[in-house]
Design a protein that fits this description.
Helix 2 runs parallel beside helix 4. The protein has 9 helices and 18 strands. It is of the alpha+beta class. The strands form 3 sheets. It has an 8-stranded mixed beta sheet with strand order 1-7-6-5-2-3-4-8, with helices on both faces. Strands 9, 10, 13, 14, 15, 16, 17 and 18 form an 8-stranded mixed beta sheet that branches. A two-stranded antiparallel sheet has the order 11-12. It starts with a strand and ends in a 5-residue tail after the last strand. The radius of gyration is 22 Å and the shape is elongated.
């Protein structure tokens, strides 16, 4: 048995993280059984891709809390999509616990009809995406045969006695609040006073930043090559919300646009929907536009808006058709008279 800890400062330990253990086990896993309380849409699509990249032959996922605590529409649609992928290929299914709320977090890794490892602790499925949400998680990695038999036995009993396949259930009530940036590191909710001051300070200096539909970059980084650890052979998919916008030189060369490697390169933003975080430009001609601290912040802000509007399905590419359905193919970057503060607008009038 070994501890798995988040290792956020100031408590840095010699123990690996949950994500380290999870991905290190995948290349030797033929079947993966998971029973967790909560999921997120991005963790579901990244789980599917991780299974594909590492040739896991079967995946069974049990979701324990959402039948009672509800899904968001995006989470439900992604769970249905994953179940369809698994059942159509006869490699597993997604099931919901229905008699009670199941809040456990259990992971069982199998090879050749034997359970080779297990994880139990506080890590919900979102931990596979290393979300850096400021929550310190702790789990244990199990390898004793008797303990693994008990773990596997409980998951099997839970599946047989207390779950239903998600597609067999009539689910029509959903959460209305789907704020991806809540609890995200490096992001704050702007106060009413901050928003009011920002709006009043807007100038006529505006840059419209096109959202390109490149198949493996910009908002589609997820579809690029996964990150391979040469020493282990583990392939981790790029994060669903990872994003870096490539801005053309005819925009970045204009006066007042932030310039890489200068005091203007990193700046604060307040968004039209009330979030506050930092962004940064870098690279030749300041062409790379990204969120500071975590590339997923900008991705959550942009892709989350597309998802919530029903224009983008998690796991599908951002295309011009998606942007057309949403109603915008660019976001506006508006300079304010407040030093180092820009206003970002991706709203749509409907």
């Amino acid at each position: 048995m070994n501890f798995l800890l988040s290792n956020y400062q100031p408590i840095k330990t010699p123990f690996p993280t949950f994500a380290d253990a999870f991905y290190n086990l995948l290349p030797q896993t033929e079947q993966l059984d998971i029973a967790v309380g909560y999921i997120t849409a991005d963790s579901l699509i990244e789980l599917q891709k991780a299974v594909e990249l590492n040739n896991v032959q079967k995946l069974n996922l049990i979701i324990g809390m959402h039948y009672f605590d509800l899904f968001t529409p995006v989470e439900y649609k992604t769970a249905i999509q994953l179940n369809r992928f698994l059942t159509d290929n006869n490699i597993g299914e997604v099931r919901l616990v229905t008699p009670f709320r199941f809040h456990g977090k259990l992971y069982a890794f199998h090879k050749k009809d034997q359970t080779i490892a297990g994880i139990i602790g506080s890590n919900n499925l979102s931990s596979i995406v290393d979300s850096r949400n400021g929550i310190y998680e702790s789990s244990v990695l199990l390898n004793e045969p008797s303990t693994l038999r008990q773990l596997n036995g409980f998951i099997c009993e839970l599946k047989e006695k207390a779950t239903d396949v998600i597609s067999d259930l009539d689910i029509s009530e959903f959460k209305t609040n789907n704020s991806l940036l809540e609890g995200q590191d490096f992001v704050q909710k702007a106060t009413t006073e901050e928003i009011t001051a920002c709006l009043a300070a807007r100038t006529d200096i505006i840059f419209d930043i096109p959202i390109k539909d490149a198949p493996q970059s910009n908002l589609n980084v997820f579809f690029g090559k996964g990150r391979e650890t040469k020493s282990t052979g583990v392939i981790k998919p790029r994060h669903w919300y990872e994003a870096e916008i490539i801005v053309s030189k005819n925009i970045t060369s204009k006066p007042q646009y932030p310039v890489a490697l200068t005091d203007t390169a990193t700046f604060d933003v307040i968004t039209d929907d009330g979030w506050k975080f930092k962004c940064k430009v870098s690279g030749d001609y300041s062409k790379n536009f990204r969120s500071e601290g975590d590339l997923r912040i900008l991705g959550k802000w942009l892709k989350g808006r597309l998802e919530n509007a029903g224009a983008l399905t998690v796991g599908e590419q951002v295309t011009q058709a998606v942007l057309h359905e949403y109603g915008r193919s660019a976001f506006s970057m508006i300079k304010t008279t407040i030093p180092n503060l820009w206003y970002l607008d991706f709203g749509v009038r409907r």
